[in-house]
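As a warm-up, study this chain.
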Amino acid sequence: MSPNTCWLCKIFRAEENGISSKVSLEEVLQWSQSFEKLITSKYGPMIYKSYLKTEHSDENIEFWLACEAYKKITSQRKRMSMARKLFRSYIQPQAPNEINIDSPARKAIIRNIQEPTQSCFDEAQRIIYMHMERDSYPRFLQSKFYQKLKHSLQTNDSN
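Now compare it with the structure written out below.
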């Protein structure tokens, strides 16, 4: 096994405890077309999260993914529990994984947290999506992290 393949396996092991499938070159190349393609692909969010850890901003993708899961909750009891967890982890001042959102978005969540709706985190999620799309996504595409992954897959493809 080549060192490049080992590098890729290390990411998968570290992030998902041993994913056996490999990311394809086609998928990795699509990530450079748009942020949406990256974040909605099979392995994109996991690889992007690994990159964000190097920037100490992985709370953004974690929050965005948690919001996607939150929207799918149908039970009011489970929604309330998850809303409180999201609030404690990401929204409240000095939260362990506090995200960078504006005051009106934060205040709206604080007002709605007692009776959370499916959409009560939508504005915060939109803000975080924009932060990632405008700030860290362009850096991700230029990073050694992404370039090395792309190169290792191109090398493997040509062998």
